[in-house]
Amino acid sequence: MTTWEYATVPLLIHATKQILDTWGKDGWELVTVLPLPDGNPLAFLKRPTGTA
Predict the structure, then answer these.
(1) N or C: which end of the chain has fewer CB within 10 A?
(2) What per-residue confidence (pLDDT) applies to 52?
(3) Which residue segments constitute the domains of the chain, with CATH numbers given?
(4) What is the pTM of this model?
């Protein structure tokens, strides 16, 4: 059975691709993006435990 670790990452509109590319290189998979009350997006990511 796979176990997961999770992270939440605030995204900057002008650097979204670079932020997600950086996390992706570390094995993180984007699950969803939700807007915060201030309008900025928050990314939720996951990766299998032990892939760091």
Answers:
(1) N
(2) 67
(3) 4-48 (3.30.70)
(4) 0.86
